[in-house]
Amino acid sequence: MHTLPQKRKDGFEGQKLISLPNTVYKTNPPFHQIYITHIGYFPKAAYHYRERRNGCADNILVYCLRGKGWFTIGNKQYPVGPNQFIHIPATTQYLRYGADDNDPWTIYWVHFTGPDMNAFNTMLKITERDGARDIAFNEKSIQIWGNIYESLEMGYSKDNLMNANLCLHHFLATFLYPDKHIKQTDTAAPDMVTETILYMRGRLDEKLAVDDLALRYQLSHSHFSNLFRKATGMSPIDYFIQLKIQKACQLLYDASIKIKDVAKAIGYDDPYYFSRLFKKLMDVSPEQYRLLRKKND
């Protein structure tokens, strides 16, 4: 009688897998908001299957490089394909996931947790209903994953744990903000907000009005402002001012440049107004900022 191969949690040829002992972080308490509990790589993971009836206290990120898989959370099932990732938040809901029987996935994955995962997931808008997300080939994440794995493979010293968990933030960022980490093709057109920010950066010595910025895209003042705020969390003018102050901070490193010339370089003819604005945003005056930087060098 023919029997189907048994589904399995791990044990795949060429796999890499580290599960950190529960005592590790008691010996070296993490200062991080989030920290790794398990990490693995399963190549062509035939009959891979996990079932968690009470959910999982960790967040789970799975990056599917090749092949196919699926995951079920609650009563909803989602397919997963090549160059997609799933980010399952810590949950008490019934959870299952596994490889496609005919074309099993190759996956990099990480489990991580922290003192307040609900706040972490709320802040980053990670929900149980997100499903699989498309992503261009994420070479950077694989490199960072390798660094994390090599650190933990060398043991759980304080330095190894610190490096691995700091790298975890970078690893997650490549998935949550791929446009900031994955190189776009030359033909890819920048989006409106990115293009506007680049336009601002090239005109830090000027005064820009929202109406002029909106006109470049044939949009009304209010519609453009709403789109910009939604993408950045700030109004266009506040963002422009922050870019100006960022440039001022760079110029203040050069002690030969007078404060009034720093002000002019970012479009302020009145050095007193510039000083008040700088202090409002940086909590110190330009003069104090320069002295503090010199003291810390």
Structure description:
This protein is α+β, with helices and mostly antiparallel strands and 297 residues long. It folds into two domains: 16-180, Sandwich (Jelly Rolls), CATH 2.60.120; 192-296, Homeodomain-like (Arc Repressor Mutant, subunit A, Orthogonal Bundle). Helices cover 40% and strands 18% of the residues. The protein has helices spanning 24-27, 117-123, 139-153, 158-176, 192-201, 210-215, 221-232, 236-251, 259-265, 271-282, 286-296; strands spanning 16-19, 35-42, 49-52, 59-66, 69-73, 76-80, 84-88, 95-99, 106-113, 133-134. Helix 3 (139-153) packs antiparallel against helix 4. It is elongated and about 75 Å long.
At a glance:
By secondary structure, the chain is an alpha+beta fold. It is built from 11 helices and 10 strands. 40% of the residues lie in helices and 18% in strands.
CATH-derived architecture of the largest domain: Sandwich
What is the helical fraction, as a range of percent?
40-55%
Q: Roughly what fraction of the amino acids lie in strands?
A: 15-25%
- Termini separation: 76 Å
- Order of helices and strands, N to C? EHEEEEEEEEHEHHHHHHHHH
Q: Major sheet, described briefly?
A: 6 strands, antiparallel
Pick out its properties:
single chain, 297 residues, alpha+beta, Jelly Rolls, Arc Repressor Mutant, subunit A, 2 domains, 6-stranded antiparallel β-sheet, 4-stranded antiparallel β-sheet, 10 strands, elongated
